[in-house]
Amino acid sequence: GDSVTQMEGPVTLSEEAFLTINCTYTATGYPSLFWYVQYPGEGLQLLLKATKADDKGSNKGFEATYRKETTSFHLEKGSVQVSDSAVYFCALSDSAGYSTLTFGKGTMLLVSP
Amino acid sequence: DADVTQTPRNRITKTGKRIMLECSQTKGHDRMYWYRQDPGLGLRLIYYSFDVKDINKGEISDGYSVSRQAQAKFSLSLESAIPNQTALYFCATSSSGGYNEQFFGPGTRLTVL
């Protein structure tokens, strides 16, 4: 079945550091890929998405590129802020029209001033 | 007003009690989902519904039941709550016309003593 593997956290960074959170997936066909963010005490929010190979999703300074050859969708940000501290989830929806989302276990990011 | 609302936001109950968690949405989406979140385990799908007459079991449906009362309402019931059902529960919605990006409610924190 489908699966998503994320790097374990917490990831601790200083403000303005470069961020990478690794995500790899296993799926048949051509899944759509997502990054969700969960701020403390809140529900999940869609951060960005990519629906086909080589697509780059971007939002709020975050980027991720759909790499089919390496089955990866790594999240990056050039300069993190304290307000980016949250849990980040990678997820996929397989190419069948009636599929559900498969989530990774989440990676906590802690950014210090 | 929030697009996806959940009630209650917090609930403490005792072992053996019946509990209902409710979800309402104003996004006009046809698909609705229930997840539970446990530390270190990410989100796991309990039940999902692709329209009012469609109910499907997810990864961890044992001990839970659902009711889709209308397109906008999807309730989750614990018939006889047990302590290992203590978790954070999220409702989500999506449109059948998109790439299955899901929109989440704020969550219900349930504690079973």
The structural class of chain A is mainly beta
Rounded mean pLDDT of chain A is 93
Number of strands of chain B: 11
Which class do the helix and strand fractions of chain B yield? mainly beta
Helix content of chain A: under 10%
Beta strands of chain A, count: 12
Measured between the Cα atoms of the first and last residue of chain B, the distance is: 33 Å
Largest sheet of chain A: 6 strands, mixed
Low-confidence stretches of chain B: none
Oligomer: heterodimer
What this model shows, in words?
The complex is a heterodimer of chains A (113) and B (113). Chain A has 113 residues and is mainly beta. Chain A has strands at 3-6, 11-14, 19-21, 23-26, 32-38, 44-50, 56-59, 62-65, 75-77, 86-93, 101-103, 107-112. Helices cover 0% and strands 50% of the residues of chain A. In chain A, strands 2, 5, 6, 10, 11 and 12 form a 6-stranded mixed sheet that branches. In chain A, strand 10 and strand 11 form a beta hairpin. Chain A is globular and about 45 Å long. Chain A starts with a strand and ends with a strand. The model of chain A has no long low-confidence stretch (mean pLDDT 93). Chain B is mainly beta and 113 residues long. In chain B, strands 2, 4, 5, 6, 9, 10 and 11 form a 7-stranded mixed sheet that branches. A 4-stranded antiparallel sheet of chain B has the order 1-3-8-7, with no helix packed on it. In chain B, a hairpin with a 3-residue loop joins strand 4 (31-38) and strand 5. The mean pLDDT of chain B is 93. Chain A binds chain B through residues 32, 34, 36, 42-46, 49, 51, 89, 93, 97-101, 103-106, and chain B through 4, 33, 40-43, 45, 48, 50, 58, 90, 92, 96, 99-107.
